[in-house]
Amino acid sequence: MPLLVLLTNLQRSTVGLFVSTPLIMDYSKGSSVFTVPKTAPIRVGFVGLNATKGWAIKTHYPAILQLSSQFQITALYSPEIETSIATIQRLKLGNATAFPTLKSFASSATVDMIVVTIQVSSHYEVLMSLLKYSQSNPNFKYLFVEWALACSLDQAESIYKAAAERGLQTIISLQGRKSPYILRAKELISQGYIGDINSIEIAGNGGWYGYERPAKSPKYIYEMGNGVDLVSTTFGHTIDILQYMTSSYFSRIHAMVFNNIPEQELIDEYGNRLGQRVPKTVPDHLLFQGTLLNGNVPVSCSFKGGKPTKKFTKNLVIDIHGTKGDLKLEGDAGFAEISNLVLYYSGMSENDFPSANGQQPRVGSGYDAGKEIMEVYHLRSYNAVIGNIHRLYQSISDFHYNTKKISALPSQFVMQGFDFEGFPTFMDALILHRLIESVYRSNMMGSTLNVSNISHCSL
Amino acid sequence: MPLLVLLTNLQRSTVGLFVSTPLIMDYSKGSSVFTVPKTAPIRVGFVGLNATKGWAIKTHYPAILQLSSQFQITALYSPEIETSIATIQRLKLGNATAFPTLKSFASSATVDMIVVTIQVSSHYEVLMSLLKYSQSNPNFKYLFVEWALACSLDQAESIYKAAAERGLQTIISLQGRKSPYILRAKELISQGYIGDINSIEIAGNGGWYGYERPAKSPKYIYEMGNGVDLVSTTFGHTIDILQYMTSSYFSRIHAMVFNNIPEQELIDEYGNRLGQRVPKTVPDHLLFQGTLLNGNVPVSCSFKGGKPTKKFTKNLVIDIHGTKGDLKLEGDAGFAEISNLVLYYSGMSENDFPSANGQQPRVGSGYDAGKEIMEVYHLRSYNAVIGNIHRLYQSISDFHYNTKKISALPSQFVMQGFDFEGFPTFMDALILHRLIESVYRSNMMGSTLNVSNISHCSL
């Protein structure tokens, strides 16, 4: 292993290996605004926050707890009001009301933002009802939904349309885009530090979908059509991150989807087999290859279900090769959006390197010309599960309060696309849905598909 | 990095990590027969051996020099007889004759085996002439040709047919099959040490075909149709090795072939750019994915041209994942057949492990049941360029003299297929040619192709 230098320990060596000028790039840092804004906090209503279980209590709740001057939970809805009341008591949500119906919740004037963190299979019904019932809500402005935004492209399109007609600012939790590693990689790429990308390889290991299933694990994640599987979740998040980092959608794609493990063995919490086999209909492997629109770059992906291996390779590896250098992202789990990663960068310093953010390079360009540069970027104690969601809320806050004082800040983000600023919207989700739909179509037809139009905003 | 144990330093630890029972598997070792056989050596005629340049002097010559009791060079042919005479003098080939014409060479009664090591683009013409002129040669029995056996499937088929009609024992230098690493991996797989294979990823980096071209480098390797390129050579050798290790051909394949670098920059021997651009028509990238016939195993491959990266990944990585363990092969160059590799194995010992070669396991099966096993296999001073060719000659010798005293040794190997014994033949070459042809066809048609019939022996 060659010389690796921690970013947090900026060092320079005279033997030809030293750290580049990362200090002048800062997108990978969190927002610096933690002070109380002059105006009132954004009032948040949750569908799916339960103090005792589920995704929201582990991620959204701690994420916005750290942003208490910008966000305030004011409303909860769950099909059983007792759950909402218990959650309010347990979390001491002094400003929150438990609503008995989705209708009363959606029309409440105490809500600026609604966050939906429920099973994907319920997205369509709940969101369409929400959008209907909130028609005359004067304050409701932000609608934040967990990926995958419903179970199919059709459903996602309907939801997108209904939200667009209402003029809502939508947010989708493709939170990998807020990962500091992804943003650092995107910075290095966009500022030319690896030159032109010419090859990308990805191998991911989706923990479940293997030979064994924990008996406690919910059945729906093993059943096709519920919007949570190796293709929609593991591949979906990862390929969205890849497109975001490289600032390019795909032009052509080909995919093969496998269900080689149609039956799983139930295991208890200690890993003991219980002697019972249960059917699995979701895929356990995806082979995907294609070309990026920018530069016709070949991309090779293999997403595998089953037990993590962790012996000779990490469960997530993204290799990005360029004409001037390489980037490698590694993670212990094949879920880039919720994993703490390690980013490796290697490149060659050149005279004609772009100066970041228009500033002069920290090191004189004549001095380090042609020298090898290396960097390892890793935040040892970063909690990616909460952290990436936290940064997503920060970006909503940055937009709402215009904390960065951007003079031409748009009144609405239709889509984030590949911008550093902003956050992914339902349009970004829709584009990803189209790619996923094309994965299944390519698999079924056995054909390479031209997907260069899927990023067009029109429906 | 977990505990790694060198095979040559067999050690056992009581903490649950120890070496399995590799001593009872020995296919990865070379033949032990180095003594003078009772009968006469195999008399070898070379087309393409030149004492001062080329492939044969670097590989075939040193390889058979170590087998001087089994092989004797008795004939040389080259278009200019002076070259042959000079080679005989320089190498002190006391028993060799320089022939003035291919006809006199091919019909010489002093030749048992002809080895053809010339440019692939000349294979067809030379081999067809050889096969014609040697019709009445009483002793000519072995025909050994360098991969790729001509430039196209059509040519390869014609050569195969002509050789089969003559009843010759053919040998093709798909010498990766003789690499001790490949044989060790094949042993581990075939004896169940990684269970059922469920996923394979390959990334290779073919050194040339990149942005720069050494000015001294011969032009023909950058021109399409000469049988030496990223697909025929880099991919060809590697995928042959993969099929051989896993004992499976492919059922379905899909490929995308790229020429993203249609012009290269000429460089001198010091790497300085000479300011001259030259056209390149051979591919610089191949994306290949498919499924193995055995077990519908997903295989993902990315073969890249250009400069070796060597920073965060090796230039050749083959990851084979199974239900009980993993294998990883790594090499510094993307040419598995001529590289010294490192083989990593990790698995789980179980009671029901097959005992190798019918012998009892070295360690009591009760003792190590369920324990984790790891192994690193690397022969530090192994010269793979010569070594794999050397082992190929050994296997010809083993066959010719039946040194292993196999009672039912066939009088001819039509194909090696996936046997440990023997050597790859023109039929093995033909099957590989069919796969390569399907790669280009899949790329052109944009379709997944069913290739499950290409291993059938019929033409």
Write the layout of secondary structure elements.
The structure is a homodimer of 459-residue chains.
Chain A: E1 17-18, E2 42-47, H1 55-58, H2 60-65, E3 71-77, H3 81-91, E4 97-99, H4 102-106, E5 113-116, H5 120-133, E6 142-145, H6 153-165, E7 169-172, H7 180-190, E8 197-205, E9 212-214, H8 230-246, E10 250-258, E11 263-267, E12 273-279, E13 285-292, E14 298-304, E15 316-322, E16 325-331, E17 341-348, H9 365-368, E18 372-377, H10 384-400, H11 426-445, E19 449-450
Parallel strand pairs in A: 1-18, 2-3, 2-5, 3-4, 5-6, 6-7, 8-14, 9-11
Antiparallel strand pairs in A: 8-15, 10-13, 10-19, 11-12, 13-14, 15-16, 16-17, 17-18
Strand coverage percent of chain A:
15-25%
Helix content of chain A: 25-40%
Strand adjacency order, main sheet of chain A: 1-18-17-16-15-8-14-13-10-19
Query: Radius of gyration of chain A from the CA trace?
Result: 23 Å
For the record, the count of structural domains of chain A works out to 2
Report the strand count of chain A. 19
Mean pLDDT of chain A: 88
The CATH superfamily label of the largest domain in chain A reads Dihydrodipicolinate Reductase, domain 2
Oligomeric nature of the chains: homodimer
Note the run of SSEs of chain A as H and E.
EEHHEHEHEHEHEHEEHEEEEEEEEHEHHE
CATH topology of the largest domain in chain A: Dihydrodipicolinate Reductase, domain 2
GO molecular function (chains A, B): nucleotide binding
Domain Gfo/Idh/MocA-like oxidoreductase N-terminal (chains A, B): 42-169
Protein name (chains A, B): Gal80p
Domain Gal80p-like C-terminal (chains A, B): 180-331
